[in-house]
Structure formats: C-alpha cells, structure tokens
C-alpha cells in the first residue's frame, strides 16, 4: 500500500492480482449482475489509485479496507437505482460475509511455502530431486526407485531422511 501511495503502478498490479477475486465476489453478491460487479470493481481500483495515501494500517488490514471500498461502491450503485433486477436490496448488502481466506492467512501460507522451498534447496541433489518428484509431481517411491536405478528400500530411506532434515530446517525457522 505504501508503494501504491507513492505512485508505483507495479504495486497496483500486485494488489489487483491478490484481491480482485475476493472484491469481485463482494460486488457480485451485492449487485447480482456480473457486468455491474465488474464496473463496481473497476471503480474500486480507480479510487484505490487515487486514495492509496489515505490507507491507515492502524485501522484496518489492506484487504479489509479494500473490502469496505468494494461494499460501499456496490451499495452506491444500488442506491443510484440504475441497476438490473438481479441485484439485492440495500438492507441485504450489509451482512454479506465473504468465506474466502483473509489476506493475512494467504500471506502466512505464502511465507510457509517459501520456507519449505528454502529448506528443500538446502538438501543434497538426489534427496532434493526425490522429494520434489514425490511430493510435487505425485510420483511413487517405486517409480522413483525404478527411474533412478535405486533399490526401493534405499529410495524410501533417502526420502525419509530428507523429510527428517526438512522437518529440522522448518522447526529452526519458526
């Protein structure tokens, strides 16, 4: 948000990618029409570009602040009376909850994922390759053993030791 307030267009793009689905959902639930929700969402980001300097991290998280922007913009469109019949009434717009994860939870998950990848990078080549193939590509231990010409028991032991080293690395980082 600070980068955006200083006029960084790249920051706006990052914020858009991280928040647009959630904010579109808020607008869509209130307005009941995709085109209206898209218009409202566009207005949200235009206002964000103009008002990013008004964001106060002491009052709300960025996603909460943007969700309020989206809700208010959608309600404003409802009040204008120029909407299609699919929209909900203004009194129904206030209690709509969003079940998607909070931005803070997404950030924590991203940090954990980055930490896992950092720890994987610390492994030796063979265990690192085996871990990646088994857990990111879904390959079986038997398939890995066969493709590398390694006995199955050795492959299982290699992966088990690598997982133990990963666990130790992750525990040290938390």
Give a concise summary.
With 174 residues, the protein is mostly helical. The protein has helices at 2-5, 9-31, 34-51, 62-80, 90-93, 103-121, 125-136, 141-148, 152-173. The chain folds into 2 domains: 2-100, RNA polymerase sigma factor, region 2, helix turn helix motif (Rna Polymerase Sigma Factor, Chain: A, Orthogonal Bundle); 106-173, Arc Repressor Mutant, subunit A.
Report on this model:
The protein starts with a helix and ends with a helix. It is 74% helix and 0% strand. 20% of the residues are buried. It has nine helices and no strands. Helix 2 packs antiparallel against helix 3 (34-51), helix 2 packs across helix 4 (62-80) and helix 6 (103-121) crosses helix 9 (152-173). The mean pLDDT is 82. The radius of gyration is 24 Å and the shape is elongated. The protein has helices at residues 2-5, 9-31, 34-51, 62-80, 90-93, 103-121, 125-136, 141-148, 152-173. It has 174 residues and is mainly alpha-helical. It folds into two domains: 2-100, Rna Polymerase Sigma Factor, Chain: A (Orthogonal Bundle); 106-173, Arc Repressor Mutant, subunit A, CATH 1.10.10. Residues 115-166 form the RNA polymerase sigma factor 70 region 4 type domain. This is Sigma-70 family RNA polymerase sigma factor. Belongs to the sigma-70 factor family. ECF subfamily. It comes from Qipengyuania gaetbuli. It holds the Pfam family Sigma70_r4_2.
Q: Please state the average pLDDT score.
A: 82
Percent strand equals under 5%
Characterize the overall form.
Answer: elongated
Radius of gyration: 24 Å
Helix-strand makeup class: mainly alpha
CATH topology of the largest domain: Rna Polymerase Sigma Factor, Chain: A
CATH architecture of the largest domain: Orthogonal Bundle
Distance between the termini: 27 Å
Which percent range fits the helix content? over 70%
Report the sheet with the most strands, covering strand number, pairing sense and barrel closure.
Answer: none
What is the helix tally? 9
Q: What are the secondary-structure elements, in order, as H or E?
A: HHHHHHHHH
Q: What is the level 1 CATH name of the largest domain?
A: Mainly Alpha
GO molecular function: DNA binding; sigma factor activity
Protein name: Sigma-70 family RNA polymerase sigma factor
InterPro entries: RNA_pol_sigma-70-like (IPR039425), RNA_pol_sigma-70_dom (IPR014284), RNA_pol_sigma70_r2 (IPR007627), RNA_pol_sigma70_r4_t2 (IPR013249), RNA_pol_sigma_r2 (IPR013325), RNA_pol_sigma_r3/r4-like (IPR013324), WH-like_DNA-bd_sf (IPR036388)
Domain RNA polymerase sigma-70 region: 16-81
């Amino acid at each position: 948000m600070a980068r955006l307030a200083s006029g960084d267009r790249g920051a706006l793009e990052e914020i858009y990618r991280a928040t647009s689905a959630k904010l579109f959902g808020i607008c869509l639930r209130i307005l009941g029409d995709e085109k209206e929700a898209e218009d409202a969402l566009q207005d949200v980001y235009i206002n964000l570009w103009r008002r990013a300097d008004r964001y106060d991290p002491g009052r709300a998280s960025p996603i909460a602040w943007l969700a309020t922007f989206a809700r208010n913009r959608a309600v404003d469109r409802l009040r204008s009376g120029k909407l299609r019949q699919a929209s909900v009434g203004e009194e129904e717009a206030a209690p709509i909850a969003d079940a998607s994860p909070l931005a803070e939870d997404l950030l924590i998950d991203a940090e954990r994922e980055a930490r896992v990848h950092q720890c994987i990078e610390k492994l030796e080549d063979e265990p690192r390759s085996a871990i990646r193939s088994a857990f990111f590509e879904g390959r079986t231990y038997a398939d890995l053993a066969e493709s590398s010409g390694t006995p199955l028991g050795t492959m299982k032991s290699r992966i088990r030791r690598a997982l133990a080293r990963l666990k130790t690395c992750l525990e040290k980082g938390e």
